[in-house]
C-alpha cells in the first residue's frame, strides 16, 4: 500500500500584496495602524543599552561590596545598637517682674526659682510638669502660661546602646517665652502680708486678705492672701511632708482669699446703701433718725411678740454723714428696709444697686478661681431656705451686710474705687502692658449705667472722712495723708466670732488708691483688726513708699 504523501502548496504572491496600493492609502484606518511599514530596531541601540546597564550593575555591585566588606562589621553593629529619637528642646520660660523691675520668678539650672519674699505666692503662683513640659499651675504662672512658656523645639538624636550620643541635629529651634511685668509692688506686697500674718497670730484670726487698687486705671498695687504656700516647695514637689501639711492645714493656704474668699461684708456695705438711698430719694441726707439701740417690728411667727433688731450701741439722733461715721445699724435698717415714716429701698432696689456697684459679679481679674459672691434675693431664699418667705427682717440684715450676703475682698476694693472716682467701675489688672503682652482690661474705666449726681458721692465720702476724724476709723487719724474709711464687723453664726473689715481710699481730696482688708474669724471681743492693719501699712508707706501717698 502506498503511504499518504504530504503535498506542499506554494502560494503565488502577487506584487499588489506586497506594495501599498497608492490609490487606497486614504482609505486606511490610521488608528488601527493600517498601511504602516514597521522597521526592526537597529543593533547599535541594543549595544548602547547593554553597555549602560552593565556599567550600572557594576557600580551597584562595587558599592554593595564596599558596604559589605569594607564597612560591613561597623555598620552592622551600628544598625543593631543605635537608634534615632526625637527630643524636645524646652523653650526658655519668660521671667516675671514686679512693677519696679524686680525679678520675682526666673529659671534656675534645673528648676523654676522664685524670690524668697513672703506674700507673693498667690499672685505669682508656681509651675509643675505635664507630659514632660513645664506648665503654670497657679497665679500668673497659670494665667499667662502661654505667653511665658514660649514654643518648644525638636531635635533628632542618634544614640548608641550605651546611650552615647553619636549625632544630633535640630529640626525646630525653641522660641523663648515672653517676660511678664506685674502691677504689683513686691515691697508693698511683702509688708501687707507681714501685717496680716502678725495680726492673725497675735489676735487669733484664722486668716486674712487685702487688696490695694489704683482707682483710676485698675492697676493692682497689692493683692495678699494669708496664709500662703511656698512656691518652691510646690514647684519641686518636695519635701512631701510639707505638702501634706498644706493639705491638712485648717487655714487653707491654697485658697487665694483675695479673689476666692467669700465673706459677709458687714458695715462696709453701708456707704453703698446710703448712695442708693440718696439716688432713689428715700431720704434727705440731713434728715435725722433716732437710734435708741434697736428697732422692733411685729414677729411673723409669734404676733404677740416683737422682733428686735439691734444697733451695736445707742447713737441718738444721726443724719447720713453721722450714721456713716458711727456705723449706726438703726439708720441703715430704716433706709434699707423702711421704718415708721421712711419707706426704705426694699430688697429689689438694694440688689439692683449692689450689682451696679460690682457686687455679686466677677471682676474678671487675670487669676483663676475668682468667686462671684452673692447678693441675696427673695428668689434665692425660696430656692435655698427651709423658710422660703422673704421678710422685712431679711431686708434689714442685708442693709447692714449680714445674712447670706457674700463678697470678696477684691470686689470691695473695686466698689470702694467707684465711691472715690464718682461712679466709674475700673477693671482690676495684674499685668502691665509691656513686652507686647495683652494687659487684659488695663485702663478700662466705665461709668456705671445709672446717673448718680456727683454731690451724692461727695456726701458719702464726707461720711467716710468723718469716720476717720471722730468715728469708728479714728485709728487712721494723724497720717501724712488724709484718708476716708469705713469699718465693718460681720458676725459669724452665734456672734462669738467675727470678720473684721476696713475699706478706705486716699488721698481724700484727690483719690488715687482704694484698699479693702478683711481679717477672718476672730473673737468678737477683740477690738484690733482692719483699722490697725490699714494704719500699719500707711505708716510704713509714709517712710518707705511715700510716692504712693501723693495725689
Overall description:
By secondary structure, the protein is an alpha+beta fold. Mean pLDDT is 88; it is low at 1-10 and 435-441. The strands form seven sheets. It has a five-stranded antiparallel beta sheet, with helices on both faces. Strands 4-3-2-9 form a four-stranded mixed beta sheet. A three-stranded antiparallel beta sheet has the order 1-7-8. The longest helix has 28 residues, at 43-70. It is built from 19 helices and 20 strands. The chain has two domains: 86-181, Penicillin-binding protein 2a (Domain 2); 186-548, DD-peptidase/beta-lactamase superfamily (Beta-lactamase, 3-Layer(aba) Sandwich).
Chain-wise SSE layout:
Blueprint: H1 15-18, H2 43-70, H3 72-81, E1 83-89, E2 96-97, E3 103-107, E4 112-114, H4 121-124, E5 127-130, E6 133-136, H5 139-143, H6 145-149, E7 153-159, E8 165-172, E9 180-181, H7 186-203, E10 207-214, E11 220-226, H8 231-236, H9 240-248, H10 257-260, H11 270-279, E12 289-291, E13 294-298, E14 306-310, E15 316-318, H12 320-326, H13 329-337, H14 346-356, H15 378-384, H16 392-399, H17 409-420, E16 424-426, E17 445-447, H18 454-470, E18 484-492, E19 497-506, E20 513-523, H19 530-544
Parallel strand pairs: 2-9
Antiparallel strand pairs: 1-7, 2-3, 3-4, 5-6, 7-8, 10-11, 10-20, 12-15, 13-14, 16-17, 18-19, 19-20
Helix pairs in contact: 7-19, 11-18, 12-18, 13-16
